């Protein structure tokens, strides 16, 4: 009786064929091999190690010591090399990536992405976030890598050191174009000039609109971009004198607002629509640039409600202070000022401290009083708070509710176009959300800042690939007139598929090989659902190519 040597080798493909398609299009592995050459003694080439880490970041995000086992189950490494993919090997590969020409790698990858996927670069949006670390990080001050430092932590962990992660994306579906890791105590206002120059060198032109938050509104930075032929859009900080001037101007003048945007209220369909109006300022900034004042219906309501709550809370505390008798005038004055400063309502109240006396009569000697008892008068002085609202100050601020200023050196485009450009900025914030929540960026397991910086480069490349996947699906949906696809739980419709939802559809896809010893007899593919087939069609990937690895 003959025993069969047949066996089944299951391979969990997941979304690896989709990721491989984009890695191949960007020639990423080839570029890694050029920039980080391998040593002949390496059992696993450095470019292969880095590409496996990149795939893991996009799809699974395992700890370093589990990446080798994960790669074997995904048919990325043979069983003999699986145990070679240790955390030490990964650390050494990240060291070699740090010592390589990373700027050249980023430039080549981004230019390839722009060319292959026809990404428009008329607008570039920049912002930064912090990557919070645990550990001391005091023995690695080599001057080459960004240094973890204490700073303004955007994760609300001021007790921990951090790195500043600056990201620039295109106005075309927020495709990452450039990133830079800075020391943890770096402020944004010092980074924009160098970011703009790096983008100009990368894109080969200064003919793009650079959009950023109020930290871009630095005189030297704006003047440099303007003199170099670039354009910018930013927010005028509240500390600028132009805002006080406009607040005074609108007390006696009525701006001619023009409706720029009208959209459904995101807080509920039954609520009034969210409307934005624009108005070109009658005066320019101190640098001579154009100011566009924007009025938001939702912000107007929020400003009014926020001020009302602050005034009400302040009145409640002032009332409790006023009910008490105080012997110390300085202490009472300090208490009132503390309350007003805490609620930022100093302008909304007129107050003063009044003094009054209480007369008391006390026996001149001890004992039970009788008709001959003598008394002496004692006067005690007390201080009390009296206050009232200042309606003129409240009315003054009411006229500025819902208004914020944008400043730009573009003097020819419509004010509504400037607003539309700035309103794309939240799309960049979603990339940071993806970085921190979906990818769970927290390289706390790496003690060397050089390796952390290299790992953050791989996270940037992961953001690039998933953003391109997201863009391809959305663009195909628009081309074919598809309003939504049911990729949410319970097959609920999704109008704008995101980068994390698309690969997640293919998590359970497997390919089984029927083996005769070490020889493949037959391959058996999992059946794809209709939505999986539709997503592959939107990605322009054929089903047979998905399973054959020829995406």
Overview features:
551 residues, alpha+beta, 3-stranded antiparallel sheet, 19 helices, 16 strands, 40% helix, 21% strand
If you had to describe this structure to a student in words, what would you say it looks like?
By secondary structure, the chain is α+β, with helices and mostly antiparallel strands. Among the domains are: 6-102 and 450-548, no CATH class; 236-362 and 375-407, no CATH class. Helices cover 40% and strands 21% of the residues. It has a nine-stranded mixed β-sheet with strand order 4-3-2-5-6-12-9-8-7, with helices on both faces. The chain has a three-stranded antiparallel β-sheet with strand order 1-15-16, with no helix packed on it. β13 (485-488) and β14 form a beta hairpin. α3 packs across α6, α6 (87-99) crosses α16 (449-479) and α11 (297-322) packs antiparallel against α12 (329-343). It is elongated and about 125 Å long. The protein starts with 5 loop residues before the first strand and ends with a helix. The mean pLDDT is 88.
């Amino acid at each position: 009786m003959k025993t069969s040597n047949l066996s089944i080798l299951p391979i969990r493909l997941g979304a690896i064929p989709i990721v491989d398609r984009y890695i191949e299009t960007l020639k990423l592995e080839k570029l890694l091999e050029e920039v980080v050459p391998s040593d002949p003694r390496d059992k696993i080439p450095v470019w292969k190690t880095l590409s496996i880490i990149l795939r893991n970041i996009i799809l699974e995000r395992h700890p370093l010591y589990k990446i080798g086992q994960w790669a074997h189950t995904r048919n990325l490494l043979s069983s003999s090399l699986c145990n070679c993919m240790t955390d030490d090997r990964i650390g050494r590969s990240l060291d070699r990536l740090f010592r390589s020409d990373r700027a050249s790698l980023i430039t080549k990858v981004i230019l390839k992405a722009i060319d292959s996927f026809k990404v428009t670069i008329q607008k570039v949006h920049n912002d930064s976030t912090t990557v919070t670390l645990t550990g001391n990080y005091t023995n690695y001050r080599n001057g080459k890598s960004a240094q973890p430092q204490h700073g303004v932590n955007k994760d609300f962990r001021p007790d921990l050191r951090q790195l500043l992660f600056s990201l620039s994306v295109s106005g075309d579906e927020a495709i990452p174009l450039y990133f830079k890791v800075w020391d943890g105590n770096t402020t944004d206002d010092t980074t924009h000039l160098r970011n703009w120059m790096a983008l100009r060198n990368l894109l080969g032109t200064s003919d793009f609109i650079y959009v950023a938050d109020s930290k871009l509104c630095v005189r030297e930075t704006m003047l440099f971009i303007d003199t170099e032929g670039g354009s910018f859009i930013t927010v005028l900080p509240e500390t600028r004198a132009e805002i006080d001037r406009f607040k005074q101007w609108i007390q006696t003048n009525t701006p001619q607002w023009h409706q720029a945007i009208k959209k459904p209220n995101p807080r509920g369909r039954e609520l009034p629509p969210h409307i934005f109006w624009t108005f070109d300022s009658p005066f320019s900034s101190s640098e001579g640039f154009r100011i566009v004042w924007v009025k938001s219906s939702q912000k107007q309501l929020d400003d009014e409600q926020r001020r009302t709550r602050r005034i009400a809370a302040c009145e409640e505390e002032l009332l409790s202070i006023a009910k008490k008798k105080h012997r110390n005038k300085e202490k009472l004055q300090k208490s009132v000022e503390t309350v007003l400063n805490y609620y930022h309502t100093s302008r909304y109240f007129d107050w003063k401290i009044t003094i009054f006396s209480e007369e008391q009569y006390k026996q001149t000697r001890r004992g039970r009083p009788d008709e001959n008892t003598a008394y002496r008068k004692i006067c005690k002085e007390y201080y009390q708070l009296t206050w009232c609202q200042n309606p003129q100050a409240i009315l003054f601020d009411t006229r500025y509710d819902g208004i914020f200023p944008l400043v730009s050196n573009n003097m020819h485009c419509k004010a509504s176009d400037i607003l539309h450009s700035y309103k794309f900025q939240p799309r960049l914030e979603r990339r940071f959300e993806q970085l921190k929540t979906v990818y769970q960026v927290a390289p706390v397991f790496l003690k060397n800042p050089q390796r952390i910086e290299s790992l953050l480069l791989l996270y940037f490349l992961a953001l690039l690939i998933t953003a391109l996947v997201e863009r391809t699906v959305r663009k195909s949906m628009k081309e074919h007139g598809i309003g939504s696809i049911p990729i949410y739980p319970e097959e609920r419709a999704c109008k704008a598929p995101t980068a994390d939802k698309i690969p997640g559809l293919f998590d359970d896809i497997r390919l089984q090989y029927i083996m005769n010893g070490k020889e493949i007899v037959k391959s058996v593919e999992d059946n794809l659902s209709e939505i999986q087939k539709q997503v592959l069609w939107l990605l322009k990937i054929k089903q047979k190519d998905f399973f054959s690895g020829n995406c």
